[in-house]
Design brief:
Elements lengths: L2 H15 L2 H21 L5 H21 L5 H17 L6 H15 L9 H12 L5 H11 L2
Helix pairs in contact: 1-2, 2-3, 2-4, 3-4, 5-6, 5-7, 6-7
């Protein structure tokens, strides 16, 4: 079952249950997934579906970060949408899993003690392996911690 079908059935269930906030969040996600499929002119792969969901989550987090603290209505709405979207997000790698991939890339490149000069090469090889499975900021932090 594709994410579009899964989200659509969850949206119908939310409508039947009378949960307006959940229905709105799922409707928003469904439209994003459909728009991506229309742009591609083909069905989305599982990885592409995950990328769409992660992009929407990132945008919501940015909205939360930029919202003034006195706008509790916007903050609550974003948090509810985030909770719904995170149910459909792909499973993210743990810090230990990311660290293992980083160490594997370092050994493949033959780098024992990484320096800031090596960071570009490391990230070039590393990011395709963790794309969509790990937060880029967290990956960058782990690589930076190994350079110290």
């Amino acid at each position: 079952m594709s994410k579009i079908d899964e989200v659509r059935s969850a949206m119908v269930a939310a409508m039947k249950a009378g949960d307006k906030e959940r229905k709105a969040a799922l409707s928003f996600l469904l439209s994003s997934l459909k728009n991506k499929a229309i742009d591609k002119r083909a069905d989305l792969t599982e990885e592409e579906e995950g990328q769409v969901i992660l992009k929407e989550i990132k945008q919501l987090r940015e909205t939360l970060d930029m919202t003034p603290a006195d706008r509790t209505d916007i903050i609550e709405e974003c948090e509810k949408r985030l909770a719904v979207l995170e149910e459909y997000a792909p499973k993210m790698m743990t810090e230990e899993e990311i660290r293992a991939v980083v160490l594997e890339v370092l050994s493949d490149l033959g780098i024992e003690k990484p320096t800031p000069k090596d960071k570009g090469r490391i990230m070039k090889d590393l990011m395709p392996k963790v794309k969509g499975k790990a937060d880029g900021r967290q990956v960058n932090d782990i690589v930076a911690s190994l350079m110290q």
